[in-house]
Amino acid sequence: MEFLKGVRRGPFGSTMAMTLLTTHLAFAHVTVWPQQSRAGATERYTVRVPTERPASTLSLELEVPSGVTITGILAPAGFTYDVRRDGTRIVSITWKQEIKAGEIGEFVFFAKNPAAAQIAWKAHQRYADGMVEDWIGPAGDRRPAAIVKLSPGQ
Fold it and tell me: Which ranges constitute the DSSP H helices of 10-107?
């Protein structure tokens, strides 16, 4: 792994490498890519969902912030999705797929960005053991919402 390059091997090398690996995994969270876009642009977004617990992830609900318009959802084989609407506007997307421990799932959607400085994507990850992790906090929080920074549109 790239972040382990240069770690010395010796009596404590393996322990140090495992500590770095564990620390790296502890900070993994639901993310939305790309992490930068333009205000007013239509963008292809990918939600990355790591399963960090022993229980599999069964679903991920992504809240669609005010001002964001979903224009399409990619639906390849292997998972299903549901949308919740307020009138005609999609306000959340829930993808359902088993993502086993140590694996990462990816879900793609298309959206028109708002005229704003950033988008905070709040997500709710549900596990097979009934646990739910809410990725809704501010940057630096234990469970931060995914942030996409927006530059002024053209």
Answer: 13-26
Say if 5 falls within a structural domain: no
**Residue 108, strand partner residues:** 46
Maximum distance among all Cα pairs of the chain, rounded to whole angstroms: 63
Residue-wise pLDDT tens digits, 46-84: 999 999 999 999 999 999 999 999 999 998 788 999 999
Q: Assign residue 39 the CATH number of its domain.
A: 2.60.40.2230
Tokens for 97?
A: 């797929």
Q: Is 62 within 8 Å of 93 (Cβ atoms)?
A: yes
User: What distance in Å separates the CA atoms of residue 39 and residue 116, rounded to the nearest whole number?
Assistant: 6
* Token digits of residue 110: 């298309």
Q: How many domains does the chain have?
A: 1
Rounded CA-CA distance 104/28 in Å is: 10
**pLDDT recorded at residue 137:** 97
**Which of 12-26, 34-48, 99-113, 122-136 is least confident?**
12-26
